[in-house]
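Duplicate of #3305? Posting structure anyway:
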């Protein structure tokens, strides 16, 4: 028995050693195969890529039919970046496509557990995640934004709605131009137009200006001087152009749908304690809202679907939704007349591709490829194909100040008309000065005597052919017939 037991022990030992050697040889062969593959490419023999399988926002990432054919913007961007590397990619879906969204933190845990090599999807780069896995260069901005409802604007009921077609600076310029025109017509018509002069010297200045202003619209023919009519024509042309622009813009304000957001910015969303805020369930946004923005948990409501976003906002279950910009841009684009962004993005985060830290070289190579695709415009082409809402995004034309007409749009009109008016006034002043000098010279006795002597000297030199001086041609009196005898 002793010999048999010894032989059995030796056989077991040989079997264990053989199995151990076989296992080590397989591991070595697998490592050698990966090394040979990595010598020409940073990719492993088979790159196992995890893809979230969710039900909503499929334009960003979708597991495809039955989770076997992943598609979406993120997947296409990854495939375009890894295309030159000739890697063998195996997609592994995570989740079941149900209403409840998959947890991205659990998906990243699969990389840590060495079950997958990378994650492709709408994965946000955060500090905690960066400590566990390695992210590539960001390929899409995903800053956090707030979306609120739109309400009817009270501008339609405003008593000063007639002032909205023009900006305040435009109204001041119009008043200044008309004052200049009235004064110009008054100065040009005063010497020749009796109604402008007034019956008495003590006539008030105000009625004269009112009469001058009325000649533009009621009786333009009342102007007597050519220069005055020139200024009136210029003012009428400017008035007609301004009238057309004013009526068109006022009609647009009265007939178009005027809306404004219920909350203006993220500060008002956070500050008001009566505001209910919705956010995506099982996302990092909850930590930001509670820890960084210090919002009470009683004000936060978890949302699990894209339909909940719109329904809860429209029904007033939540007053605002805070989520990443790509999702909210898609939501606002589909409900442009009812939803709007509240202010500007308040965090700077991005989407990236997550890799196992062991595949550092592959992550670096793909980061370089993402930069190349961004610079060449190929990434933008993919974005335009899969995210059309980024191109057709409506800006909620709901602010009345964007419809105001400003000075910069009419500066050419006022420059030309003002120049013509000033030139006419300058010419009129020069002409008046010349006429005044002539009248002054004609009333001087010495000047009169000099002119008479020069006329006589000139007349004495002009002798007619019959020898009679032109000066002798004076007015002859009729012959005196009183002494003539009657016939």
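Output from current build:
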């Amino acid at each position: 028995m002793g010999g048999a037991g010894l032989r059995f022990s030796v056989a077991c030992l040989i079997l264990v050693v053989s199995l151990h050697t076989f296992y080590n040889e397989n591991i070595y062969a697998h490592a050698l195969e990966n090394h040979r593959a990595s010598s020409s490419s940073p990719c492993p023999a088979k790159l196992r890529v995890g893809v979230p399988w969710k039900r909503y926002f499929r334009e960003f990432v979708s597991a495809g039919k039955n989770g076997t054919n992943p598609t979406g913007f993120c997947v296409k961007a990854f495939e375009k970046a890894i295309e030159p590397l000739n890697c063998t990619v195996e997609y592994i879906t995570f989740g079941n496509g149900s209403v409840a969204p998959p947890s991205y933190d659990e998906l990243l845990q699969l990389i840590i557990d060495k079950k997958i090599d990378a994650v492709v999807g709408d994965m946000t780069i955060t500090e905690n995640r960066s400590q566990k896995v390695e992210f590539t260069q960001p390929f899409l901005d995903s800053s956090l934004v707030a979306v609120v409802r739109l309400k009817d604007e009270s501008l339609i009921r405003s008593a000063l709605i007639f002032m909205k077609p023009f900006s305040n600076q435009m109204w001041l310029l119009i008043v200044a131009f008309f004052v200049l025109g009235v004064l110009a017509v008054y100065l040009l018509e005063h010497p020749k137009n009796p109604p402008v002069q007034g019956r008495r010297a003590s006539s008030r200045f105000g009625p004269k200006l009112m009469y001058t202003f009325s000649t533009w619209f009621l009786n333009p023919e009342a102007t007597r001087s050519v220069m005055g009519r020139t200024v009136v024509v210029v003012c009428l042309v400017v008035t007609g152009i301004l009238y057309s622009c004013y009526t068109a813009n006022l009609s647009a304000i009265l007939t178009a749908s005027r809306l404004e957001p219920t909350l203006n910015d993220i500060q008002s969303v956070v500050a008001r304690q009566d505001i209910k805020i919705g956010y995506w369930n099982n996302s990092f946004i909850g930590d930001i809202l509670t820890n960084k923005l210090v919002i009470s948990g009683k004000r936060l409501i978890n949302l699990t679907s894209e339909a909940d976003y719109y329904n809860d906002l429209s029904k007033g279950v939540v007053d605002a939704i805070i989520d990443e910009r790509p999702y909210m841009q898609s939501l606002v684009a589909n409900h442009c007349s009812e939803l709007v962004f509240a202010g500007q993005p308040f965090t700077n985060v991005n989407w990236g591709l997550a890799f196992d830290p062991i595949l550092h070289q592959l992550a670096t190579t793909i980061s370089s490829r993402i930069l190349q695709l961004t610079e060449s415009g190929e990434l933008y082409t993919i974005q335009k194909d899969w995210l059309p809402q980024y191109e057709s995004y409506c800006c909620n034309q709901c602010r009345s100040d964007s419809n105001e007409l400003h000075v910069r749009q009419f500066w050419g009109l006022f420059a030309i008309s003002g120049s013509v008016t000033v030139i006419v006034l300058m010419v009129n002043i020069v002409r008046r000065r010349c006429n005044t000098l002539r009248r002054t010279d004609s009333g001087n006795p010495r000047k009169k005597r000099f002119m008479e002597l020069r006329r006589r000297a000139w007349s004495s030199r002009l002798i007619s052919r019959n020898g009679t001086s032109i000066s002798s041609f004076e007015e002859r009196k009729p012959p005196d017939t009183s002494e003539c005898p009657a016939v």
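Confirmed duplicate; merging threads. The longest strand covers residues 144-152. The chain has 16 helices and 13 strands.
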